[in-house]
Amino acid sequence: MGNGEKLKEECGVFGAFSLSSLVAFNIYYGLQALQHRGQESAGIAVYDGEKVNCIKGLGLATEVFNKGNLKVLEGKMGIGHVRYSTTGSNDIVNAQPLVANFRKEYMALAHNGNLINAEELRNQLEDEGRIFQTTSDSEIILHLIAKNFQKGLIEAIQETMRQIKGSYALVILTDHKLIGVRDVNSIRPLCIGKKGDTYFLASESCAFDVIGAKLIRDVEAGEIVAIDKNGINSFRLEVEEKKMPCVFEYIYFARPDSVIDGKSVYFTRLEMGKRLAIESPIEADLVVPVPDSGVAAARGYSLQSGIPMGEGLIKNKYIGRTFIAPDQKDRETGVKIKLNVLKELVKSKKIVLIDDSIVRGTTMKRLVNLLKSGGAKEVHVRISSPPVKYSCYFGIDTPTKKELIGARMSVEEIRKAIGADSLHFLSIEGLKKNIGLESICTGCFDGNYPLEVSKGKSKYLFEKK
Q1: What average pLDDT does the structure give for the chain?
Q2: Residue 41: enclosing H or E segment and its boundaries?
Q3: Is 172 helix (H, G, I), strand (E, B) or coil?
Q4: Is 185's pLDDT higher than 80?
Q5: What phi and psi values does residue 196 have, to the nearest 5 degrees?
Q6: pLDDT of 239 strictly over 90
Q7: Between 20 and 30 A from 146 (CA), which of 34, 285, 324, 373?
Q8: Helix or strand holding residue 12 (H, E)
Q9: How confident is the model over 339-353, as a mean pLDDT?
Q10: How distant, in Å, are the alpha carbons of 7, 158, 363, 408 from that of 396?
Q11: Are residues 75 and 30 in the same domain?
């Protein structure tokens, strides 16, 4: 909710391989289902039997593609990408998929994640005389595969995986294969689906639902899946790294109708709300979610506490990605354009306001003020995640530590800053228990990352301007 008030996921990836059908439209619909993961650029690359054709551009999938240009992308195998730029600027040159032609073969690659050793690897490759066309760390992966290609495709990918450090979910298109790769810690999600004789790869299972495909399974940590006319082959990079998927996929990033690593995102969020009610009970008249990010947790809080849930905040569903920002002197207008208070519902009531996170605190302060201005007697804020205290180095565009209100203030100080009558965050222990995975990355809450990171360095190869 709010410009800059939510953490941003980097990208969504999608792939399709069919024995009998053209895949461009399926990829397009898959990207639309993954649009929440990135709205700055979209692209599709399809192999037509002789070469890879690629169309990409800035904006949403619906802005980049139409019936005319999708019909041009003829082929039975292809990949797609939606991007939120953390590395480099929002420039067409950084839009994916990236396409390369080497050793008389074509290759296209789409990447979700972030490499923490990108700077060193790029310097090494440039010292070897390799030329980069983008400011994206994804191009490093393409260069490393090309460099090791004489060993064979799978071996080249495995050698690349040994060199790169960080998070990555990859879909790769070659002359004859569709390949999916998930990092050795499984930080970023990737799953496999099927419909008839067509296999699909996607960042989230919700992309399969829209095209009528069934989720088969998740790609495992350190796994390479190669799909061709003979079906699926699996290759594993044997490492002792701990499987630590990103906790924020369950808190906010993923669509609630997705299933990630066997866990329903919606029911996980519902349970977070229930746990929040157990950890921080309060006498109140109404549970109000922040649309749409707080809805599932608010329902869980309501079910556990017995306090009815109501739409105290109404969202304007016709706001686009960008709107003409109001004058800085009237920042409240920015919130009111997106949300308004249902005064008849909140008047003279004690409200429990539920959201999934507080990043900078500015939007939450305005929401509390909106509810109180609308007549709410008290506003008690409950957050279905712990305070965000640390930057992420693995593909989430987190503000710097000095911008994170959870890193600068105690819970009581945050409560005063946002004007709430009380404030409680879900505990890390409660969060982990509800998600129910053996281990999970909670680095943004406690600084315990899956890999050692150099805190003094830039988070990304080229910081966003």
Answers
A1: 90
A2: strand 41-47
A3: strand
A4: yes
A5: 60, -125
A6: no
A7: 34
A8: strand 11-18
A9: 96
A10: 7, 25, 20, 20
A11: yes
